[in-house]
C-alpha cells in the first residue's frame, strides 16, 4: 500500500513539474512602456519538434490589419496577424532556446529564450550580450 501511495506522489509531482515548464498555449503580450496588453500569441509545437509562436490577435484595432513594414526577407510587408514571431525554439531542460523572435515594430530579429515562471512566461531576446526580458500572461 505504501508503494502505491509513493508511486502516486511521484506521478503527481511529475505532472505538476511538466505543467509548470510547458510553454505551449496562448499568451497575452504586454507593452513595456504602457503596461497594457498588446497582442495575443499562440505558441505551438510543430511536426519538426520545434516551437513557434504566432500572433493571433492584436489589441489595437488600428493595427489589426497592419503589415510588418520594417521586417526583412520573407516577412517584409506581410500581415502581422498570423505571423510567426517566435521560430525554431527547442526544449532544453526547463528552457526553450536556439531560435529567434521578431519584433514586428522595428523588424529586428533577436536570439530567443523562453521559460515558465509560475503561471507566466518569460520571453528574452538577445543581441550579443545585451538582452531584454518580457513577461507574458497565460490566457485561460
CATH class: Mainly Beta
Please estimate the helix content: 10-25%
Which regions contain 5 or more consecutive residues with pLDDT less than 50? 5-19
Q: What's the overall geometry?
A: globular
Distance between the first and last residues' Cα: 37 Å
Proportion of beta-strand residues: over 45%
Q: H/E element string?
A: HEEEEEEEE
Task: Count the DSSP helices.
Answer: 1
The largest pleated sheet is described as: 8 strands, antiparallel, barrel
**Whole-number radius of gyration?**
17 Å
Specify the CATH architecture: Beta Barrel
**SS class:** mainly beta
Biggest sheet, spatial arrangement of strands: 1-2-3-4-5-6-7-8
CATH topology, by name, is Lipocalin
Report the average pLDDT across residues. 88
Please render the helix and strand layout as text.
Elements (H helix, E strand, L loop, with lengths): L1 H20 L3 E6 L6 E9 L5 E8 L25 E9 L2 E8 L6 E9 L2 E8 L2 E9 L2
Antiparallel strand pairs: 1-2, 1-8, 2-3, 3-4, 4-5, 5-6, 6-7, 7-8
